[in-house]
């Protein structure tokens, strides 16, 4: 559902797109592990979720730092996720002579496993409610901007204290958009090695035409292994492979890390996204897509280099266009208005509630109305839309690292605090390849788009272009920088502010030149939008708690959540769509399209068809509530056995960013029986099968 590049684009887009639906319908909900609706699950499905069951599933679940999920599936550190989550690593490990994305990969021995250059996996160890401590930092009379700064300082202190005390990655997570703050502690794995990935053609069979559709026939799986001290990590909690798979109507759970939803947003917030935020984002993605296609047409090697970015952009465009169409649906906005009016009436019915919560909706409306006047500048300067280059990202990180290092931890930008430093440096010093010509075409396109959107007379645009065309400036910047050299990056970082200030590297000079303006527009956004909305949404959350109790769940935050549902088909255009697809359907669909791209089967799939049991289930759908970030999540049964692997949602699920409706919204998974059949009979990976099934 989301490639690494797609997710990075979603983070850029959705971290600031942070809908009001307090009444839970059917199998709705992405539930934190410390607030799982055990009674409702037992009432609906007759299954008692125990604390021991939850603990096992929690510790078997894995978060990928590139925006996906996974799970331990053997005691020797084997981790299952999607091919499209692995594809970023596959691309970085590929060469012109060995394209792992196209050809696939299988390490028959552990000595052949390939180490990922910059992959970090996190396992959630525990959760602690720190709401009171964060809120205690806010003193009476503080403005929203001052209160936001105080909360941020408190969060930095909590994270640093936890890291020093436990050695675990420590993240304070904002829930209910300010209603609660929880401290999540993670065990980090940074020695992560590739074990298996199929060919792109079968992992993404049907390509963009079939993306977000069903029926599907995709082997969207990959396997990694985590190491500690040079040896495969021994894990006690892992998911055993179900020999029987899932059945129609069976209760199943998804344990994963949904990235971002906007279900608690006010109507004014959603209208801003519909009328301004999403259209602007879609235009930027369209410009980026055009540049990637232009580069891809230059040759086979250029197409290989651009494939991961292009896949991510096209995936994001399809998803965001679907979300925009959903927000344009009068029925959805009417549903939101009705829910919001009911909550506001509940608040207005009591003088205390009205005094404490009543102004929240208008405050958000004012903040969003003013944002449109400077959102372009924020996106292009602070969001990096105007500087679409990995080299610029490195330069900005180095420039800010030098400055932030000189501040107390509580005053730093959150991404530069002590608690986040190891993860930041893993990315900053990644040895992944960078290609000059690819960087030039992306940077030129983004500079051109910034010039066209902000205007050629804009002072920042003039400073950035320095009298040159976007193409000339991009070529000058990329050819002149030395930031591809990891040793040079480390040298600059070690030299601190003086080294940065004295550097003549053109990319460092550019990052320095725009940093003041970028920081200023970021601060304005944090003061006028984030600070205001933290307070306002916290009030709305408290009103919801008073009205609904704990039967509401927070919006997704790329933290571990549990959803429950059932394997179930659905009606579409008057036709029943069965829940399962089978290997036979894969070959029928390929034949219907003449076995041509994107329905072309990899050669070994054609050659070894006779060895397969074509009645083997391949993909299936369930009513589980998922969103981007859930890619790679395990689908498990009551026994905490693996029955499937989430990789997508159907087209009706796209509006799930804002609302959930189980009549057609479906999560799509690879069936465990299909994975074993393919590993054995297509790839001859019997050693791997034995590890999974033992």
From TrEMBL:
<dbReference type="InterPro" id="IPR019500">
    <property type="entry name" value="Pep_S46"/>
</dbReference>
<keyword id="KW-0031">Aminopeptidase</keyword>
<keyword id="KW-0645">Protease</keyword>
<dbReference type="GO" id="GO:0043171">
    <property type="term" value="P:peptide catabolic process"/>
</dbReference>
<comment type="function">
    <text>Catalyzes the removal of dipeptides from the N-terminus of oligopeptides.</text>
</comment>
<keyword id="KW-0378">Hydrolase</keyword>
<dbReference type="InterPro" id="IPR009003">
    <property type="entry name" value="Peptidase_S1_PA"/>
</dbReference>
<dbReference type="Pfam" id="PF10459">
    <property type="entry name" value="Peptidase_S46"/>
</dbReference>
<feature type="signal peptide">
    <location>
        <begin position="1"/>
        <end position="26"/>
    </location>
</feature>
<keyword id="KW-0720">Serine protease</keyword>
<dbReference type="GO" id="GO:0006508">
    <property type="term" value="P:proteolysis"/>
</dbReference>
<comment type="similarity">
    <text>Belongs to the peptidase S46 family.</text>
</comment>
<keyword id="KW-0732">Signal</keyword>
<dbReference type="GO" id="GO:0008239">
    <property type="term" value="F:dipeptidyl-peptidase activity"/>
</dbReference>
<dbReference type="InterPro" id="IPR043504">
    <property type="entry name" value="Peptidase_S1_PA_chymotrypsin"/>
</dbReference>
<protein>
    <recommendedName>
        <fullName>Dipeptidyl-peptidase</fullName>
        <ecNumber>3.4.14.-</ecNumber>
    </recommendedName>
</protein>
<dbReference type="GO" id="GO:0070009">
    <property type="term" value="F:serine-type aminopeptidase activity"/>
</dbReference>
């Amino acid at each position: 559902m989301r490639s690494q590049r797609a997710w990075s684009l979603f983070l850029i887009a959705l971290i600031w797109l942070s809908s009001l639906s307090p009444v839970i319908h059917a199998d709705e909900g992405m539930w934190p592990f410390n607030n799982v609706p055990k009674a409702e699950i037992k009432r609906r499905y007759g299954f008692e979720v125990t604390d021991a069951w939850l603990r096992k599933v929690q510790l078997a679940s894995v978060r990928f730092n590139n925006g996906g999920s996974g799970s331990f599936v053997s005691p020797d550190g084997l981790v299952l996720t999607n091919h499209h989550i692995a594809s970023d690593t596959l691309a970085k490990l590929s060469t012109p002579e060995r394209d792992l994305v196209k050809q696939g990969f299988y390490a028959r021995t552990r000595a052949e496993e390939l180490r990922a250059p910059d992959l970090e996996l996190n396992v959630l160890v525990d959760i602690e409610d720190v709401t009171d401590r964060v809120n205690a930092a806010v003193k009476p009379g503080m403005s929203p901007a001052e209160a936001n700064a105080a909360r941020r300082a408190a969060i930095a202190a909590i994270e640093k204290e936890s890291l020093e005390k436990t050695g675990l990655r420590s993240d304070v997570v904002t829930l209910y958009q300010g209603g609660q703050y929880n401290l999540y502690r993670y065990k980090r794995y940074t020695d992560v090695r590739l074990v298996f990935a199929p060919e792109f053609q079968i992992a993404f069979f049907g390509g963009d035409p079939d993306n977000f559709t069903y029926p599907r026939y995709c082997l969207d799986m990959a396997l990694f292994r985590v190491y500690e001290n040079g040896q495969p990590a021994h894990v006690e909690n892992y998911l055993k492979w179900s020999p029987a798979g899932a059945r129609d109507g069976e209760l199943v759970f998804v344990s994963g890390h949904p990235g971002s939803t906007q279900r608690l947003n006010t109507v004014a917030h959603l209208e801003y996204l519909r009328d301004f935020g999403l259209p602007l984002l879609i235009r930027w993605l369209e410009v980026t897509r055009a540049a990637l296609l232009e580069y891809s047409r230059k040759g086979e090697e250029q197409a290989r280099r651009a494939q991961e970015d292009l896949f991510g952009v096209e995936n994001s465009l399809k998803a965001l266009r679907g979300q925009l169409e959903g927000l344009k649906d009068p029925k959805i906005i009417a549903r939101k208005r009705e829910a919001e009016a009911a909550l506001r009436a509940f608040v207005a019915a009591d003088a205390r509630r009205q005094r404490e919560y009543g102004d929240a909706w208008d405050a958000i409306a004012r903040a969003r109305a003013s944002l449109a006047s400077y959102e372009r500048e924020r996106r292009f300067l602070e969001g990096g839309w105007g500087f679409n280059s990995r080299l610029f990202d490195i330069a900005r990180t180095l420039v800010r690292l030098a400055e932030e290092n000189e501040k107390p931890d509580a005053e730093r930008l959150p991404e530069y605090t002590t608690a986040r430093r190891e993860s930041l440096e893993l990315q900053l010093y990644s040895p992944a390849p960078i290609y000059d010509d690819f960087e030039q075409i992306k940077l030129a396109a983004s500079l051109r788009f910034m010039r066209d959107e902000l205007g050629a007379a804009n002072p920042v645009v003039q400073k950035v272009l320095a009298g040159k065309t976007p193409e000339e400036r991009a070529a000058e910047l990329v050819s002149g920088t030395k930031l591809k050299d990891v040793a040079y990056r480390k040298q600059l970082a070690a030299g601190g502010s003086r080294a940065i200030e004295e550097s003549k590297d053109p990319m460092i000079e550019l990052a320095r030149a725009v940093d003041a303006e970028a920081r200023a527009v970021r601060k304005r956004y944090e003061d006028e939008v984030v600070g205001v909305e933290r307070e306002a949404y916290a009030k709305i959350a408290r009103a919801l708690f008073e009205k609904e109790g704990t039967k509401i769940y927070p919006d997704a935050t790329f933290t571990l959540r549990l959803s429950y549902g059932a394997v179930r088909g659905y009606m579409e255009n008057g036709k029943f769509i069965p829940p399962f697809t089978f290997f036979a359907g894969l070959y029928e669909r390929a034949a219907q399209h003449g076995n041509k791209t994107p329905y072309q089967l990899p050669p070994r799939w054609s050659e070894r068809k006779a060895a397969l049991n074509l009645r083997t289930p391949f993909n299936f759908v369930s009513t589980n509530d998922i969103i981007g970030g859930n890619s790679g999540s395990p689908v498990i049964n009551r026994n905490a056995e693996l029955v499937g692997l989430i990789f997508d949602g159907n087209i009706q699920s796209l509006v799930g960013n804002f609302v959930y409706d189980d009549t057609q919204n479906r999560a799509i998974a690879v069936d465990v029986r299909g994975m074993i059949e393919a590993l054995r009979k297509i790839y001859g990976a019997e050693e791997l099968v034995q590890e999974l099934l033992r």
